[in-house]
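Lab meeting, item 3. Inverse folding demo.
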C-alpha cells in the first residue's frame, strides 16, 4: 500500500474516465466549487453522472434541493456556507424519508471526497437514497466496494454529511488497512492516495 502512482498518471486516468462521460476532466488544483466533477449514488438507484460545475453536481446529489438560482448561486454553494446548506438539504431529505415519502425518491449527500488535502482539487460527491446515517458507528449505512474509474488511490481528504462517519479502505471490498470511521478529515493520513473502497456508518 506504500506504492504511489505519479500524480501525472492519475490525472491522465481521471481525464480518460471523465472524457467517456462527456465532461472535461478537472485540473487537479482547481478549487472544488469551480471545476467539473461526478456524483456517485452509492446504492446504485441512479447512474453515476458527471457535471461541468460543482453547482450542477450538488444540485443532482441533493435531489434538486440545492439547485442553482437566487438562493443558491455558485457563490453560496462554496466557502463556509457550503456545509450548512448541505446539512439543511439533508435534514429535509431525512424528514421525508422518515415520513415514508420514498416513492418520490429522496437524495441525501453523504460525503464529498477530494483528490487533494484540505478539501481541494477534483471531487466526487457521494449520495444515497435512504436518508441520514444512523448514529451507531458499528453498522454499515451505505457502502461502495469500488471507486469510480480514475479515483483508485486518489482521495486525500473528505467532508462528511448526513450524520455519517466515513471509513476508507485500502483495498476493494473493504479489505486491507482502513482509516476511520470519522467525520471530515483534511488529510487521510495512512490512506492518503491509497483508498479503494468506502463505508459510511
Ligand atoms: Ca490525492
Ligand atoms: Ca450508523
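The presenter then showed the designed sequence:
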Amino acid at each position: 500500500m506504500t506504492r504511489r502512482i505519479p500524480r501525472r498518471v492519475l490525472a491522465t486516468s481521471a481525464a480518460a474516465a471523465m472524457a467517456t462521460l462527456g465532461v472535461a476532466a478537472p485540473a487537479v488544483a482547481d478549487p472544488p466549487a469551480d471545476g467539473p466533477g461526478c456524483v456517485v449514488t452509492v446504492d446504485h438507484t441512479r447512474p453515476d453522472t458527471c457535471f461541468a460545475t460543482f453547482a450542477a453536481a450538488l444540485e443532482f446529489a441533493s435531489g434538486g434541493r440545492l439547485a442553482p438560482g437566487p438562493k443558491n448561486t455558485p457563490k453560496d454553494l462554496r466557502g463556509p456556507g457550503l456545509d450548512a446548506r448541505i446539512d439543511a438539504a439533508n435534514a429535509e431529505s431525512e424528514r421525508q424519508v422518515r415520513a415514508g415519502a420514498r416513492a418520490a425518491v429522496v437524495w441525501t449527500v453523504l460525503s464529498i471526497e477530494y483528490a487533494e488535502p484540505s478539501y481541494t482539487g477534483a471531487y466526487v460527491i457521494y449520495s444515497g437514497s435512504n436518508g441520514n446515517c444512523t448514529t451507531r458507528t458499528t453498522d454499515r449505512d451505505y457502502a461502495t466496494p469500488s471507486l469510480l474509474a480514475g479515483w483508485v488511490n486518489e482521495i486525500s481528504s473528505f467532508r462528511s454529511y448526513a450524520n455519517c462517519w466515513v471509513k476508507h479502505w485500502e483495498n476493494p471490498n473493504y479489505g486491507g488497512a482502513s482509516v476511520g470511521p470519522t467525520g471530515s478529515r483534511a488529510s487521510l493520513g495512512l490512506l492518503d492516495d491509497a483508498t479503494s473502497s468506502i463505508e459510511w456508518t
